[in-house]
Amino acid sequence: MKRLAATLLIALQACAGAALASEVTSPSPFSLSGFGTIGTVRTDKDNRAFRSSTTQNSGASTDFDFSVDSVLGLQGSYKFNNTLDLTLQSVVRKDSSNSYDPKLTFAFLRVHATPELTIRAGRMRTPFFMYSDSLNVNYASPWVRPPVEVYSLNPFADLDGLDAFYRLPVSDMELELHAYGGRSELDARESTGNLTRIRGIKASLNAPRLTLQANFAKANLALYWNGPIYAALAQQLIATGNGHIVDQIAGSGSPTTFISTSFQYDNDRLLLIGEYAARTVDRYNSSAIGWYLTSGYRFGPVTPFVTFARQHQVSTDNAANTGNPSLDATLRLLNAVRNKAQTSVAAGMRWDARRNLALKAQLERVQPGPDALGIFVSNSVMDNLNPGGPVHVLSLTADFVF
Amino acid sequence: MRSIHALLIGILLACSSAARAEVVVVTSTRSGPIELSREQAEKLYLGRSTTLGDGTPVNLVDLPNGSTRDEFYAKLTGKNPTQIQAYWSRIVFTGRASPPKEAGSIAEARQWLADTPNIIGYLERNDATPGLRILLRLP
C-alpha cells in the first residue's frame, strides 16, 4: 500500500510533465501540494512521556523530542474532466511501531454529480470530529495539535468506503450534510482494532462568521489488546473460571456510538472554538466523554490563545469485582491503562511568520486521571493507578504548506 | 522645464501605484454567454461551488502570490492572505475541493484565460486584453 502510494504519486508527476509539454495554454489537470510540521516537545517529569496520539508507542519526557508532532504529507490530484477527479495523499509520521513508513491517507475518486452533490469512493479520513479530517495538517488550526482530550476518544483515522456531501443554501447560510459509510483499521500502543459497518452523518451549518457542526456515527468495534498485562490477565481469568470477562475486554462486534458537536466563531479578530464528543461502547473499552474550549485573539500576524480541555470516563467494560483480590487488582490496572482521563489548560501563540509558514509555541499544564495517566506513558505501569500531580508540556512547532 | 516634467511624471507614477487598481473577474470570449454574480464568484473562490449559478462547471485560475491576488481575495471574501492560505489548506488537505489552478505569471494566466473556454480568473483592470470578457468588477 505504501509503495503503491509512492508509485502513484510519481506516475501522476510524470503525467503532469507530459500534459504540460503537449498543451501549454491550458492549466494542467494535475496538481501537487504538501504540508508538514517540524515540532519538538518535552515535559517536566522523567516518567511522564507525552504523546500526541494514543496510537504512538513512545513519547517525549524531559528531553526535547522531535518524533511526537513532526509530520510530512504530499498530495496529488488529477482532474479527468469537470465531474471526475482522483486524489492521493501520503503521510509520513511516527507510527505505533516507531517506524516512519509512509501511509496512504487519501486514495479516492470524486464525482461532482450535481452542483449540490459530491460523492467520493476510496480511502478518506473519518469525519468523527471537527478537525479529524485534517489531523495531520497543523497549519490549518490555531493550536500545535487538536486537543487530545477530544481527539483521543476515537483514533480511527482512515475511512475506507463511500461518502456524499449535499449542500443547500439556508437564507444567507449554507447547510452541508455529509453521509459516510465504510470501515477502518488501527494499530495503536498495545492494541489492534477495526471499525466495521461505520455509518454516520455530519451536519454543518456555515454562516459567514460561525460554523456549527453535529456528528452522529455508529460502528461495530473489534479490539485486541496485546500488552503484557492483558496476556497474563486473560490466562488468569480463564483459569479462575472468569472467561466471560475476557469476552468483555477483547473481541469483535461491539456496538459503538460516536457523537460530537462543535462550533467555531471567527470574526477576523476574535476566535472561539468549542467541541464536545462522546464515545459509547458496549465492550472492549471504556465509554468516555471529552470537551474543549479555545479562545484566541488576532493581533496582526500573532494569535495568542488559551484552551481548557477535559476527558473523563463514564463507564468501563468490566467492574473489576470477580471476588478474587489479585485478579481485581489486575483488572483495575488494565482499566486504568485504557482510561485516558485528564484535564488540561494550555496557553499558546501562533505567529504567521510568512504566507506559508506558522510558528507556534504552546505550554500546557495537564493533570492526568483520576485512575489514569491520560495521554502519557510511564516506564512504571503501576503509575496508571497513581498518576500524581500535574505535568507541564512545552511544544514548539513550525507548520508549513507548499 | 525638464525638471518640472520629471517631477510631474514622478508624482503621476507615485499616485498610480498608491491608488488601488480595479480588479476584474474575466473569462475568455470563447466561453458561452455566462454570467457571474459577486456571491457566486465568492462561492467559487472559497471552494463552496464548482459551477456557475446555472450549473455550468467552470475552472478557476489564481495569480501567483502578489498584491493583485491579495487584493482580489480581500475585496471578494474579506480575508487576508494568511486567512486565505489557512482556509484553502484546510479545504484541499481534507480532500473537500481542488484549489484554483495557480498560474506561473500574469502572462500565463492571461494566456490560459484567453485560450480556454469556461475558465474564470481575475486580473488587474489594466492587464485585461481584448480576448477576455469582464464578468465582474471589484473596485
Short description:
The complex is a heterodimer of chains A (402) and B (139). By secondary structure, chain A is mainly β.
The DSSP helix count of chain A reads 5
**Distance between the first and last residues' Cα of chain B:** 36 Å
Could you spell the SSE succession of chain A in H and E letters? HEEEEEHEEEEHHEEEEHEEE
Note the run of SSEs of chain B as H and E: HEHEHHEHEE
Q: How many beta strands in the DSSP annotation of chain A?
A: 16
Strand percentage of chain B lies at 15-25%
CA-to-CA gap between the ends of chain A?
24 Å
Residues in helices of chain B, as a percent range = 40-55%
CATH-level-4 superfamily name of chain A: Porin
**What level of helicity do the residues of chain A show?**
10-25%
Contiguous low-pLDDT stretches of chain A (5 residues minimum) are 15-23
> Could you tell me the radius of gyration of chain B in angstroms?
17 Å
Using only CA atoms, what is the Rg of chain A? 22 Å
Structure overview:
The complex is a heterodimer of chains A (402) and B (139). Chain A is built from 5 helices and 16 strands. By secondary structure, chain A is mainly beta. Chain A has one domain (33-72, 119-401): Porin, CATH 2.40.160.10. Chain A has a 16-stranded antiparallel β-barrel with strand order 1-2-3-4-5-6-7-8-9-10-11-12-13-14-15-16. In chain A, a hairpin with a 4-residue loop joins strand 4 and strand 5. In chain A, helix 3 packs antiparallel against helix 4 (243-249) and helix 3 (228-239) packs antiparallel against helix 5. By secondary structure, chain B is an alpha/beta fold. Chain B has one domain: Periplasmic binding protein-like II (D-Maltodextrin-Binding Protein, domain 2, 3-Layer(aba) Sandwich). Chain B has 5 helices and 5 strands. Chain B has a 5-stranded mixed β-sheet. Chain B starts with a helix and ends with a strand.
